[in-house]
Amino acid sequence: MAAIRGRDTKPELIVRRGLHARGFRFRLHAKNLPGRPDLVFPKHRAVVLVNGCFWHGHDCPLFKWPASREQFWHDKISANIERDIRNRAALETEGWHVAVVWECALKGRGKTDAGDVIDSLSHWLLTADTELVIEGFR
């Protein structure tokens, strides 16, 4: 598991490059915020979380419970889900707008066009909407 990347993943890079090309400027993995969000837009008081479907237990075709060491993986992924809920609530309590982009939106059979994902995020950043969730088709 040491080789698994926690940052600079392919889905995260797609989102970063797309938003940067549209003129949005952001900070990466801000240590002073709960959960160290992937992208932080201080000007818009917004954060974007790019979640891997396996590691965050997303109910989609990309997620499947491992057949070996079932209890270990159940405990680990359940803890990740609980931590995500806590961190998101803490961010919202501090007045941050939160968007979650799931890996399945950019990868797999049900993926959405990357341009559409970037369009949605761009529109969300420029509006007063407090939250956004982008998922792939099921």
TrEMBL record:
Keywords: DNA damage, DNA repair, Endonuclease, Hydrolase, Nuclease
GO molecular function: endonuclease activity; hydrolase activity
Functional summary from the UniProt entry: May nick specific sequences that contain T:G mispairs resulting from m5C-deamination.
InterPro entries listed in its UniProt record: DNA_mismatch_endonuc_vsr (IPR004603), Restrct_endonuc-II-like (IPR011335)
Name the record gives this protein: Very short patch repair endonuclease
Pfam family, one: Vsr
Gene: vsr
Alphabetical list of SUPFAM superfamilies matching this protein: Restriction endonuclease-like
GO terms for biological process, alphabetical: mismatch repair
Family per similarity comment: Belongs to the vsr family.
Tagged with keyword Acyltransferase: no
Enzyme Commission code: 3.1.-.-
